[in-house]
Amino acid sequence: MSFSDINIDVFRSINNVGKEVPATEPVAVFVAEYMLYFLILALLVHWFTRRQRNRMMVIQAVIATVIAEVLGKIAGKLYSHHQPFAELPHVNKLVEHAIDNSFPSDHSIIFFSICFSFFLVRKKEWWLWIVLAILVAISRVMVGVHYPVDVATGALLGIISALIAYWIVPKLGFIKQLLGMYEKIENRVLPTKNKTENF
């Protein structure tokens, strides 16, 4: 059995869950389409805690996402294929999606870049972010817009980029300077007497 056959078989096993258990379909659609807004909200909430470590984590997550997206574009130039619903018969397509190159998955890139960045810093609730990223990756296969190889590659690029940002960004002096300048301006506009670094 070839890698392509395995990829399609795994896709079928995940994509057919909705056919076998219809109650899972709206859940998959919600996770696949709307969980991105929760992720954006999480970034904003952590930023506006006004705790420096949280803010550095958000900066690392954003930079990791940019790195991963660049790597993803390069990967997409080296290898490409259309979405499963455009290539395979009888796909359980649950959301509307344009036909283009689905390799690698942008959703997986974004979620794993950000969630793994959070995982590296937020030790208390680390499992939440990993579970969230995995659920989104699975949901993108379940709704019929990505193959397993698309989301797996996106996840790998996101994790690698998060590690790079985690190791390098805190050592960059200009990042600390820019953050310091921003916080000075912020404190003039929104002064706070009880700022703490505890989290």
UniProtKB/TrEMBL annotation:
The keyword tRNA processing does not apply. Keywords: Membrane, Transmembrane, Transmembrane helix. Residues 61-166 form the Phosphatidic acid phosphatase type 2/haloperoxidase domain. The chain crosses the membrane at residues 27-48, 126-145, 151-169. InterPro entries: PAP2/HPO (IPR000326), PAP2/HPO_sf (IPR036938), UPP_Pase (IPR033879). PANTHER family: AT30094P (PTHR14969:SF13), SPHINGOSINE-1-PHOSPHATE PHOSPHOHYDROLASE (PTHR14969). The keyword Translocase does not apply. GO terms for cellular component: plasma membrane. GO terms for molecular function: undecaprenyl-diphosphatase activity. It comes from the Bacteria. This is Undecaprenyl-diphosphatase.
